[in-house]
Amino acid sequence: MKARRKLCALALCFALLLTLTGTCLGVSVAGYSSWFAGDFTEMNTLGLIPDSFAGYDLKNNITRGEMCRLAVHAFEKITKDSIEPSRTDYFSDTSDTVILQAYEAGIVSGYPDGTFRPDQKLTRQEFFQIILNFCNAAAFRPSADGTDMSKFLDYSQVASWASDAAQICYKCGYVYGTAVDGGSVLNPTGYTSRQEAMAMFLRAYKGVNEYYYGLVLSATVQADGYDEDDVSVKDYTDTLYVDTDKLNVRDSWTSSSTAVGTLTRGEAVNITGKCSNGWYRINYEGHVAYVHGGYLCDSSGTLQTIDVSGSGAGVEIANFVMQFVGYSYVYAGASPSTGFDCSGLMYYCLGQYGYSMNRTADGQMQQGASVSRSELQVGDLVFFGYGGYADHVGMYIGGGNFVHASTPSSGVRVDSLEQTYYVNKYIGARRIIG
């Protein structure tokens, strides 16, 4: 696949008016069911509905060709790349550019007889596989991990080639199934309506986009996230100990700065200063260097994270979240045994206190009450993204800091809201607790 970097920024269209006939500022359609109204608005807001869907009755079944248009459109929005097919003769029955793009990206495949069959209706298990292919194309490669599918009464009817895809779609929250007496069903060989496919695909897009933020963009985040004026250092003397198998020592207080050495678990660290972003200045082999405080502990084994002081439910829960500083970032992770992604950390921790949370960052931004930045309290959730769409979430812990599952390279950590990157990406806060 050949790709060229788009030079223009992502333009979002915002839906201002919505009726059941599908009239809005974005793409207008002939109709859809009332249950899809919210998803339709959100997809138009995010610019996820291809122009070619204009005039469609979304209650009709989706075809393989239409699914290609939906997937390629979203793939290019996430990656900011456009796919240029290198050949036009992959299939004997179509040379449609979008289908060729989807094929070159690895999102779809053809049939053994050399056809693609673009007008053929898409089965649900074909949809599961296309969603998994879409994830892989965007650098997210989840595994089934033996996900328990016993709640689905017809899981045994899923073809062997789609079994892992079905498990992953369920594990990641893209597919819920249909409730029936005694459990749920996947209906793997049944057809998928356009609106059903779009609703499931919206969940997948939001999840993959959140992952792409954490992994693929992490180098940019860490490189551009700090400005010299953002971080202050106060003299502070202490001896702390490494509480991770390997800790990089760096020449500055960012994960993108040059590593000048490593420390191993249990090594003593001579602290000479505290940075406002959670890092520590240290004396390393006679030189000034820096390490992140989330991977240090005192002699009792207590991690040296920023203290969350005070009383109340928000402080109690924030301190519970802080116990996981140093844990791994794992996409779709939502437990201490697996690691966490950003929304998974909030989902797990708040769930331990009885709060029923949505599973994605954007979904969590729809919960609770809106809070202005000047009114932030310990335990409030802070969100980052673009427009009104949240692709990252953390919990405010006071002092201008928040704890979050940051990136695969840095895991769960504490950062400052005053870092340039987070200032630019901050889009709001919600009060869930209390």
Describe this structure in words.
The chain is α+β, with helices and mostly antiparallel strands and 434 residues long. Strands 14-19-15-16-17-18 form a six-stranded antiparallel sheet. A five-stranded antiparallel sheet has the order 10-9-8-5-11, with no helix packed on it. α2 crosses α3 and α2 packs parallel to α6. The longest helix has 21 residues. The protein is elongated, with a radius of gyration of 24 Å. The relative contact order is 0.10. The N terminus is likely disordered.
**Secondary-structure content class:** alpha+beta
| Beta-strand segment tally | 19
Give the neighbour order of strands across the main sheet.
Answer: 14-19-15-16-17-18
Span between termini: 51 Å
Rg of Cα set: 24 Å
How large is the share of residues in beta strands? Answer: 15-25%
Instruction: Identify low-pLDDT runs.
Output: 1-24, 215-229
SS field, number of helical segments: 11
The major β-sheet equals:
6 strands, antiparallel
Bulk shape = elongated
Helix content: 25-40%
Order of helices and strands: EHHEHHHEEHHEEEEEEEHEEHHEEEEEHE
What average pLDDT do the residues reach? 82
